Amino acid sequence: MRSPRADRPPRTGLPKAALALVVTTVLAGCATDHDDPVAGQSTDVPDEPVTITWQAAPFGNRGDDARVWLVEEFERLHPTIEVEVVSAPTNVDTNRAGLSTQIMGGSSTPDIYNGDVAWSAQMADAGLALPVDEYLPDDYFDGFDPAVVEAASYEGRTYGIPLTLDQAFLYYRTDLLEEHGLEPPTTWEVVAEQSRLLIDEGEVDHGIAYQGAAYEGLTAVTNEFVAAAGGGILDDALESPAIDDAPAHEAVEFMHGLGEEGLAPAGVSTFEEPESLQSFTNGQSAFLRNWAYAHATAEDPGMSEIAGDVGVTAMPAFEGQDTRASSVGGWNVYMNPHTENLGASLAFLTWITSPEIQAEMAERSSTVPTLDSVRESEEIRALSPVIAAAPDNDLVSRPTSTPHYTQVSQAVFSNVNAVLSGTEETGDALGEARGAVQSALDGRSL
Amino acid sequence: MTAHTQDPARDTAPERARTPRPAPRAGRAHRAATRTAWAYLTPTLVVVGAVTVFPVLFSLAMSFSHVDLSYSGFELEGPTLDNYVALLTSARWYSALAFTLFYTVVTVAVELALGTLIALVLERLTAGRGWLMALLLVPWAMITVVSAQLWAFMLNSSYGVISWFFDLVGLEVVILGEPAPAIAAVMIADIWKTTPFVAIIVLAGLVTIPREQYEAASIDGANAWHSFWRITLPQLTSTLAIAVLFRTLQSFGVFDLPFVMTGGGPGTATEPLALLGWRVMFQSLNLGAGAAIAVTTGGIVLIMCLLALKVFRAQVGEVRR
C-alpha cells in the first residue's frame, strides 16, 4: 500500500507565503521616512470638487450639534468641497485607539480629526498628526492664548488647530450664597470655609464635588490645584518632575483635607465628570469643579433640581497666590499625515478658527472661543455666564508636550487617587509619583 | 435540476469510474485529489493564517523589538529584551499580574463550587427545571458591559442601592473607591454572571451519571455525602476540567468588568493584564511593551491551562485505577 504521505504537496508552500506576508508588511513599515508626507500637494483650495472626511465626536455645550451646522455653512461658502462627518466614539481613549490604528495603518481618511488637546505630542511623535504650522502663515497662531498653542505643540512645531477651548470653572449655588450673605469664593480657603458653614446650617451634605477618580480628569484637577499653590507637575522647563515639591504637597494635602473633613463627598475618589455634576445638580454639594458643559445641564430643569440657582465663576486661587488656575481642555483639529486633500483640509481648518466662526460657535453651541480677541470681547462675554467667567481663569496647560504624557498622567492620577481614597499618605504617594513621572519622562514606563 | 438535464461532468464521471485505471494514472488522480483538497482548504488556511497565526507571530516579533512610529508606519528594530525588562521592572505590571491571578483563582474556584451546588439542586428538581434554568441564564446572557454598568450603578457611593444598604447598617465604605472592597465587588459581579454557565456545564455532566450507581451505593449503605465524593465528583472530573479551562481562559483575559466598573482603580488595584495591555498599546502607543504584555499573558494562561488539564487527568487516572 502506497503511503499517502508521498503525495503530500511540498510543505514549505504555506510557511513561505506567510513569511512573504511578514516581510512585505515589515518592509512597508520600513519605507523611507519622508520629512514632508504631503510633499507635492497644493495648499490652495482646489478648483475640482473634492470630499474631505472629518472624524469628530459631537461637540458643543448646548443646542445644536456644532458639527452639523459648521459643515452646512462651510459647504455653502466652498461649493467645491464636501465635508463628510465621521462620528467618533465619545470616549476619548476608545477614540484615540481607533484613530491611531487607522492612521498607523496608512489610511488617508479621515483627512482631519478632532482630538483632545492633551494628544498633540503623542500624536506628533508617533507620526499620526501633521505639523500644520508648516502650511499656515507665520502669524497664524498669534491670536491664541500661549497655553493653548503650547498644548498643541511638540518640539517647536504646532500640530493641532485649537477648535474649542475648554476650561474648568467653579460652579456655586446662588440661592445658598445669597441667603447666607456670602460672596462667590475666589480662593480655595474660602470655598472650604463656606462649605463648612453651609453643611453646618444643614443646607447641603457636602461642600465641593470634583473629579477624583483614577483617570485623566484627576490629572487635570491636580494640575490646577498644584498650579494654584505656585507649583507644577513638572518644573518650568518641563524637564523634570516637580510633583514632590512643596507646592504640590500643599495642594494635594488640601485636596485630601477636603475629604477628611467631609467637605468633599466621601466617594469623590470615584467621581468622574457625571458623578460630580450629579452631586451638584441633586443639591448634595454646594460647589462643583467642572468643565464648561456643566452649566447647561445644571440649568436644565429636566436634569437638575437646582436649575435657576446656578452661579459660575473662575477657578479659585490659594490665599497669598493669585493664580486662578484652570487646566486647558477642549478639542484641537489634527490633520492626518496621509491626507490626499491638503488644500481643502487647510481651508476647512482655517475657516473654523476664523473670528466669525469662533463667535458663531460661541453663540450657537456655547463653546468657549479659542481666539483671545473673540473670547474677551464684550459681545461674546454677554452670551453666557460661562464664557463671561472664562477670561478670569489663568490657563495652565497639563505637561502634554512630552510624548510620554499618558504615562506622566498615569503616574500623577494613580498616586493622587491613592491619597484621596485614604490608602496612602500624601508624602509617600507624591514621592512615588515623582519616581514614576521621572521614569515616564525617560521613556522607561509602560 | 432534474435527472434529464444534460450535465457533461455527471455523464462522464461514471464512465471514467468503470474504466480500469493503470497504476500511474491512479497516482496522478490521487495527487489531483490532494491538490483539489488543498485548493478547497486554502481559503480557510489563508483566513486562519491572516487572523490568527500572523498576528500571533507578529506580536511575538514586536515584543522583541523597538517599535519606531513615524509618518510611514512603523519600523521594528531588534531583537531586544527592553520591552520585557520594562515589564519586569514595572510595579504596575506586577500589580496587574497579581490582581489577574488572584481574580482568576478566586472567581473560578467560587464559580465552580457554587455552580456545582446549583447543578446538584437543579438535577433533583422534578418540576420547573426548564424555567429555573432559563432564569439562571439571564445573568450569563446579559452583555457584560451592561451588567457591569448596573453593578456600578448599584455600588455608586452617592445613589447606589448597595451603598445605601451599607449606610443603613452603619458600614461607611466607598465600595468602588477602596482597593479591597473594589476588588471584591468586581469579583462578585463576575461570579454573579458566570456561575450559571458553570452550573449548566456541570448539570450536563451530572445527567450522564447512571442512576444505578447511586442505588447500588445506597444499598451498600452509603449516605449522600459519600455518594457525592465517591460517585458524583469522580465522574464529573472531565466536565469540571472543561469548565475550569473555559473559565480560566476567560477570567485571565478579563477586561470589560473592571473597565466599566472601576476603570482599573482605585489606583491600579483592579487593573487586569488585558486592560493594562490595551492601555499600554493604545493609550501610551507603546507597541513593543504592549506586545510583551500580550505575549506574557498568553504564555501564562497557556501554562495555567496545561497545568489544570494535567491535574484533572491525573485525577481521572486515579479513579480508573
UniProtKB/TrEMBL annotation, chain A:
Residues 1-28 form the signal peptide. InterPro entries: Bact_solute-bd_prot1 (IPR050490), SBP (IPR006059). Keywords: Signal, Transport. It holds the Pfam family SBP_bac_1. Transmembrane segments: none annotated. The keyword Signal applies. Belongs to the bacterial solute-binding protein 1 family. This is ABC transporter substrate-binding protein. It comes from Nocardiopsis coralli.
TrEMBL record, chain B:
Residues 97-308 form the ABC transmembrane type-1 domain. Its main location: membrane. The keyword Cell membrane applies. Residues 7-18 have a biased composition (Basic and acidic residues). Keywords: Cell membrane, Membrane, Transmembrane, Transmembrane helix, Transport. Belongs to the binding-protein-dependent transport system permease family. This is Sugar ABC transporter permease. It comes from Nocardiopsis coralli. The lineage of its organism: Bacteria, Bacillati, Actinomycetota, Actinomycetes, Streptosporangiales.
